[in-house]
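Suppose a classmate hands you a notebook page containing two proteins, each written out with its sequence and a corresponding row of structure tokens. How would you begin to make sense of it? This section walks through that situation. The first entry is reproduced here exactly as it would appear on such a page.
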Amino acid sequence: MDITDITPDQVVFWQWGVFSLNATLLYTWGVMLFLTLGAWCITRRISSDVQIPRWQNLLEIIVAAIDEQIHEVSGEKSGPYLPFIGTIFIFIAVSNLLAVVPGFIPPTGSLSTTTALALAVFVSVPLFGISRQGFGGYLKNYIQPTLFMLPFNIMGEFSRTLALAVRLFGNVMSGVKIGAILLAIAPLFFPIIMQILGLLTGLIQAYIFAILALVYIASATRAHHEKETETFKKGEKTDG
């Protein structure tokens, strides 16, 4: 990849008329295939014995860590959120970590990929909110504290989606470009340091994106959760 390329969308491997296969599509599907095969290989011999395979142990550690983070951030059981948040985190993390493989271009360095991920969060927020509060209850959040806040709350929904997409794209893309520039300047020493920093940054960006997505989803369901808590406390006082 030439360091002047802004995104992997510009790296085209095959084109026929208006149809083209660029690096974003190729490596996105590559990561998906890698994760699917990896999950299948680990879970096809899953065991509940005391002695379990090391890959199953690693997977359980990752799932348990994600589960704990979801519970700490949302204050609720992770059940409804774990598949969605966990998938987003693992996809971004693996995409960024595979950047150490020669020739691999992280699809998260493409604005189209990060926008798609942000749109998935954008759609999931009202879905989780409606599932917990009902359609009418969720829509009331847009007119809080007054009806005049409706346009500002709607603008806030779109702006945070844009912020999610641009944040991930900018950080991943800048890391790739800096690494490519340093590789051209000093091909032996700097790339090693940049690869280590790139791995750390990739994990951090995956964590930040997943946590922000969880915060947005949790905020959409918080009103229902607070209402349940308040009802429970009133019941306790009545029983007392």
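The notebook's second entry, a different protein, reads as follows.
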Amino acid sequence: MEEAKWYVVHTYSGYENKVKADLEQTINNLKLQDEILEVAVPIQDVIEVKDGLKKVVQKKQFPSYVLVHMIKNDRTWYIVRNTRGVTGFVGPGGEAVPLSQEEVDRLGVHGEGVVTDFKVGDTVTVISGVWEGTTGEIKSINESKQTVNVIFSMFVGRPTPVELAFTEVKRM
């Protein structure tokens, strides 16, 4: 099965939350939870000063854009593209181009968390970051932080513990 990726969808100004709600309703109605995993409108806290008073306000990080985590196929592309308020996918010629994992991490969009079936003792390979290509054994799993503690044998058999995100490793 193809892996889900994050895509950027352009919307009419001010329609971000409406597009999100409509897409989520369509996903539930058509039972597409396995193909369209999440719809996000990134927001950030901003401090506004009005009349000498500081107030924390949430603002849209990217006005007129919505992020969609989905498995791209003809059906999902059609559903997202034809949602009221969507003007198209961001990419050359309106073609849906996925965000890289680095871009997703920078945006701070991690969804509702990664569900994994890792077990203590599993042998894993690091697939991104500084440790890419290194193989080690899982010593502990932290579900709340979405991390695994992996032990590498780096320096003449000396165990080297490293904490990595679920998305940075894959089982051998």
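A careful reader of the second entry would note: The mean pLDDT is 85.
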